[in-house]
Amino acid sequence: MALPSDTFPTDARAIRAMIRTGAHAAHTAGLAPGKLQCNLAILPERFALDFLRFCQRNPKPCPVVGVSETGDPFLPTLGQDIDIRTDVPRYRVFRGGVLTEEVTDIAALWTEEMVTVALGCSFTFENALLRAGVPVRHIESGRNVPMYRSNIALQPAGPFSGTMVVTMRPIPEALVAKAHAISARYPQAHGGPIATGDPKAIGIADLGKPDYGDAVEVKPGEVPVYWACGVTPQNVLLDAQLPLCITHAPGHMLITDVAEDAETTIYTPENA
Question: Helix H segments across the chain?
Fold first, then answer.
């Protein structure tokens, strides 16, 4: 369920309140302009250190911007009122490496051993692209960003390994350098692109068939540009076959109170 875009609030806390009550369960692309959006990995504490090592070794797809206390569903460094059990539009639940369900509330699944790892999201730099006159096709089309499994290997840590998932945005050829420079300013949101041009060079067979999200048109004179994607840890967690882990559904992010261009991801009233 989602409100028409012309009636949607822009305040991050107001949007989270809608999500918390079930008034919005769709993707978050284009929402709360200027605020950091996050991918999520929620897993038992005994696996959390290895997962954080994995993220440290693979910062492009896994830029850590927040970590909860064990058993604590709140993330005060990202927003005073954030409750990770209710404030994401849609969650994915994996058991033993199998996706068992998608839900809009994980309160019944929360345990005292859970740790939340929040990871930066490429939705964050899209507002900067738009302000600079660089088109973002999936926002223009009211769609979720297309996401693809690539053949780019990741550095393993403990039980975690795999290949990178990437997002793709068609960029006019004359604006590719500008898009690269702008997104590179946001290392907490995957930074600059990891590839441009031929999708087959990074293991993508067909841009018209994304593994996640929605396909978008690549028009004449445009170049496919690829960024590291925060769905990457979902595949890594799945392959690790943990007894239980929870992530956001692709494109359904946690919207924080942190300014997307803040030098720190610590929430304060000044950067809200």
Answer: 12-20, 45-57, 123-131, 137-140, 176-183, 232-240
Contact indicator for 43, 237 with CB cutoff of 8 Å: yes
- Given a contact cutoff of 8 angstroms between Cβ atoms, the answer to whether 36 and 124 are in contact is yes
Averages of pLDDT over runs of 10 residues in the chain (272 residues) are: 56 92 86 87 97 96 95 94 96 94 96 96 83 91 91 97 96 97 91 96 96 94 95 89 93 89 47 41
Q: Are 83 and 74 in contact (CB under 8 A)?
A: yes
- Cα separation of 268 and 78, whole Å? 9
Domains and CATH numbers, the chain: 5-122+239-259 (3.40.1640.10), 137-228 (3.30.2040.10)
Q: Do residues 54 and 157 make contact, with C-beta atoms less than 8 angstroms apart?
A: yes
Report the distance separating Cα 264 and Cα 261, nearest Å. 9
SS3 category, 220: coil
Whose structure tokens read 């954030």?
Answer: 82
